[in-house]
Amino acid sequence: MLFSEARGQAVMDLTSADTVATVTACTVAPSPARIAGLRLKTRGRGHHTLEWANVQSFGPDAVAVEGADSIRDEKTMGPGEPAHATHDPVGKAVLTETGLRRGTVTDIEFDERSGRVRHLLTDGEQIPGDALLGVGSYAVVVTDHPE
Questions:
Q1: Whether pTM exceeds 0.70
Q2: pLDDT tens-place string over residues 81-135
Q3: Among 10, 84, 112, 146, which is most buried by a count of CB atoms within 10 Å?
């Protein structure tokens, strides 16, 4: 699935069957490359995150969570946590470990069951998820030679 297709999906609390949020973005962690968290729009103010470990299912129409209490206010997260907003790759430059620019991340292809990143998409190429070394505030870093 492409993350752009997941943007706007409802997040449903399985205990109450209420829609508690909408997916707006994601964060990514390396080794192995995976979706670490979903950034959400909720009814309240501020920004919120759902860590991937708390996703019960990721369907074509909604994301299911066991309870709305698993949604965290981003203010409570440190930048070292993989689900922190700093690790959102979309719109960031892609650089190799030796500094070669490979474009800008436009989308992410991922497995909706496991959260594994299959590819980082740029305007010009698909970079295998296994090449991901890290996501920072400015850029996404990938290996020079994907395995």
A1: yes
A2: 999 999 999 999 999 999 999 999 999 999 999 999 999 999 989 999 999 999 9
A3: 84
Residue whose entry in the numeric block shows the structure tokens 């994601």: 26
Can you read off the two tokens belonging to residue 53? Answer: 């470990």
32 to each of 29, 75, 115, 132, 141, how far by Cα in Å? Answer: 7, 26, 10, 8, 14
Asked if residues 22 and 8 have their Cβ atoms less than 8 Å apart, the reply is: yes
Residue 76, by phi and psi: left (phi above 0), alpha (psi -120 to 50) or beta?
A: alpha
Residue type, 116: R
